[in-house]
Amino acid sequence: MVEAKPEGKVKGKPTQIFNDPRRSNITIYCGYEKQAFYLHREVLCLNSPFFEESLEAKPITEIHLPYLMPTAFSVIARWLYDGELEISSDYGVLVLDVLLASKYLKTEELTNHVIQRVINWTNIEAARLAPASKPMFFDFFVDFCEYCNMSHIPHLVSCGKRLLSHFELTGESVYGKLERGIVGNVFVAMIVGSGQFLAQALLEKQQ
């Protein structure tokens, strides 16, 4: 799926010169395999505070980012150039890698865009997942919540209501993840908010 960037974002260079070594003035090496991306300082500095801090007024021609996955950086670099977010709706590791890289590169608008997209998908599609896919998606969602903050809680609560309604979540399963340190504060706040909403709805139904 290709989704357009929200309006208002200043676009950088056209895609015709994206990752073109003949026209590049900065090379980014990603991952331990050092995959090269041939980009442009102007675009990176315009759209990423990390690159602005790293490149502005410094005569360097390459940056090494060994801890960022090349597949994730490719998604972000493309977004920096043409505003298209190319992530499939089959949410999984790539989304988490993109969120990790986006946080590192300080592309806050992209981070919020990806988070909102996952939330929207969860509200619409999560209940339709096959039973065999639900545990995997739940584990993904737990990890996903680690990239959210308290400002996302109202939107996450709607996801939590669907997870509680359509997934076989038990107190024991959630407690087990808590005990092992798998879930964070945002996930706990989401579950509490969702549970309160469902409990209130049940009380109103019984009255």
Question: CATH homologous superfamily of the largest domain?
Answer: Potassium Channel Kv1.1, Chain A
Instruction: Work out the count of structural domains.
Output: 2
Which fold name corresponds to the CATH topology of the largest domain? Potassium Channel Kv1.1, Chain A
Helix tally? 9
Q: Which residue ranges are poorly predicted, with pLDDT under 50 across at least 5 consecutive positions?
A: 1-13, 197-207
Global Rg = 20 Å
Shape category: elongated
Q: In CATH terms, what is the architecture of the largest domain?
A: 2-Layer Sandwich
The CATH top-level class label of the largest domain:
Alpha Beta
Strand order of the largest sheet: 3-2-4
Kindly report how far apart the N and C termini lie. Answer: 45 Å
Helix content: 55-70%
**Number of separate strands:** 5
Helices and strands, in N-to-C order?
Answer: EEEHHEHEHHHHHH
Largest sheet: 3 strands, mixed
Brief characterization of the structure:
This protein has 207 residues and is mainly alpha-helical. It has helices spanning 41-47, 49-55, 70-82, 93-105, 108-125, 134-145, 153-166, 171-179, 185-206, and strands spanning 2-4, 26-30, 35-39, 62-65, 84-86. Residues 1-13 and 197-207 have low confidence and may be disordered.
